[in-house]
Amino acid sequence: QVQLVESGGGLVQAGGSLRLSCAAAGRTFSTYTMGWFRHAPGKEREFVAAISRSGLSTAYADSVKSRFTISRDNAKNTVYLQMNTLKPEDTAVYYCAADRQPGWAPRYRTKDEYDYWGQGTQVTVSS
Predict the structure, then answer these.
(1) Rounded to whole angstroms, how far apart are CA atoms 127 and 120?
(2) Separation in Å, CA 48 to CA 27, 59, 69, 75, 96
(3) Angle (nearest 5°) at CA 119 between 118 and 122
(4) In 3D, which of 17, 54, 20 has the Cα closest to residue 34?
(5) d(Cα 65, Cα 49) in Å, to the nearest integer?
(6) pLDDT per residue of the chain (127 residues) written in tens, 0 to 9
(7) How far apart are CA 100 and CA 84, in angstroms?
């Protein structure tokens, strides 16, 4: 089992940047595919980005591609989401999640495939 704690959210103006972190407690962090999702009011929780266990493979939602970068440091048990050129429509609660199934597959886009979730961190982008 792994416990996830997100940090780094806040209020930023459109065009600005934020870096989210997700710290994992547990000795098996490197065995999890990690994902970021977001949940805006009135919308479904949606996929943002995912990274493979080694960090060599990544995937992004079309809406954030070229603006957001996911990375991980397995030595620090942490996954990051660098968010640049933020837009008001990026406003949401951002969650990190861990998938314990082996392999890298398109299931990383599906929230139901993830086994563990953090509590979320609020990101608000003002226009």
Answers:
(1) 23
(2) 25, 8, 10, 24, 10
(3) 115
(4) 54
(5) 9
(6) 899 999 999 999 999 999 999 999 987 899 999 999 999 999 999 999 999 999 999 999 999 999 999 999 999 999 999 999 999 999 999 999 999 988 888 889 999 999 999 999 999 999 9
(7) 29
Burial of 104 (0-12, 13-18, 19+ CB in 10 A): middle
Phi, psi of 120 (to 5 degrees): 95, 155
| Angle (CA) 103 9 113, round 5° | 25
Residue in this structure with the two tokens 């595919």, named with its chain if needed:
33
Residue type, 85: T
